[in-house]
């Protein structure tokens, strides 16, 4: 019973975070709508946050939870700027389709 | 024992709603499923004794970020009819590569060595008192720098959102 938090093994949290991160990556590859891609980035950030909290609880160290606090702050700033960019793109192209924005593609 | 059942319930809820975020046809439904995902993650924080983070998570994600997403979706008037879709073979390739990534992440756990748990265990690390002592002790400088980040984000969002002046 050494690697258990509240009756749940640490490996289960690692597995859950891995699956959640994979779903985020899948969404970024799968969809063309820029807003959905933003949401999937949020899912990926949250998968990492969950893993940090689990490790912080497991090692009895507050630093992990402070990292999560900073990640939330950065995520909030990122969403604000990202959605502003998105509305600007929509104003110029009348669409939220990312495949229109291919000027930098080789 | 009840924490174990709660863990499995929340995990299934999170994975299901995260999949629905990706596969829902209507962007508004995606946002609603994302809110369910975030509440499930907040429940996990409660199970991990991180009460402060759970409260902050609900306030920041369900309160601020989701409102921003819904606002933008309704402002841009996105719905099922204008939703763009990738070709089928790209979708297939996306699912295959996502599955390969999951196999890699899960498979890397197999040979991993178990960490040794710290004893005696401190279950009060998630409370405001202990978090505050760390945040305003060793992490004071990053905390102050993050305020500069917010200022930059605010200025950037306002500048990007404004119409060009001729």
Topology (SSEs and partners):
The complex is a heterodimer of chains A (106) and B (166).
Chain A: E1 4-5, E2 8-9, H1 10-30, H2 34-59, H3 63-93
Antiparallel strand pairs in A: 1-2
Helix pairs in contact in A: 1-2, 2-3
Chain B: H1 2-23, H2 27-47, H3 51-76, H4 88-107, H5 128-135, H6 140-161
Helix pairs in contact in B: 1-2, 2-3
Describe what this molecule looks like in 3D.
The complex is a heterodimer of chains A (106) and B (166). Helix content of chain A is 74%, strand content 4%. Chain A has 106 residues and is mainly alpha-helical. The longest helix of chain A is centred in the C-terminal third of the chain and has 31 residues, at 63-93. The model of chain A has no long low-confidence stretch (mean pLDDT 87). Chain B has 166 residues and is mainly alpha-helical. Chain B has one domain (2-82, 122-161): NADH-ubiquinone/plastoquinone oxidoreductase chain 6, subunit NuoJ (Four Helix Bundle (Hemerythrin (Met), subunit A)), CATH 1.20.120.1200. Chain B is 72% helix and 0% strand. Chain B is built from 6 helices and no strands. In chain B, α2 packs antiparallel against α3 (51-76). The termini of chain B are far apart. The interface between A and B is large, with 73 and 85 residues.
